[in-house]
Amino acid sequence: VGAMSQEQLYASFLLDKQEGLEIALLAEDVTEATAITSSIRRLPTTVDFLEGIMHLRDAAIPVINLKKRMGLEDTSYDGEAKVAVVNGLDQRYGLLFDDIREVFRADNADIFPISPGLQTDDKIVSSLIQLDQGSRTIDLLDLDHVFAEANDQANISKGLQPTSTEPDTTY
Predict the structure, then answer these.
(1) Phi, psi of 8 (to 5 degrees)
(2) Per residue in 103-128, pLDDT tens?
(3) In sequence order, what E strands does the chain have?
């Protein structure tokens, strides 16, 4: 093992069972992974990938449908769906997955950046982790980019948009 080698701990989840699409997050970013214990209440007039809010131990947590956020064709989840609770934008969020997979260690040498020319603008997945001598590939989710759109909205609501005392007459 070379001096530049550095292992990190990751948590992996099955985003889509049918496609075998596996997603990993840095384990330190995941506060818990659990079955959905209460109903997810939809919120009108929110971004389409916000599935709604779920109550978890006296807190209302926004739940993100990653299949929608990543533009997958099948965006549904069955009754066995799981949620990974992560911290982003100074708040806890739930990310929906088909199933919880495992916690594993990966070396920096196992992580391969995706060429920027092959990525969409939102860069939600910017690297791949290759395990088992390359026979298993896991998409590495970049939480900062998952929440980038929400962050833009948060900045606007913090007054980074001109405000007017005139009544809004836009219909």
Answers:
(1) -130, 160
(2) 999 999 999 998 887 776 677 888 99
(3) 7-16, 21-26, 30-35, 50-56, 59-64, 82-88, 91-97, 99-107, 111-113, 125-131, 136-141
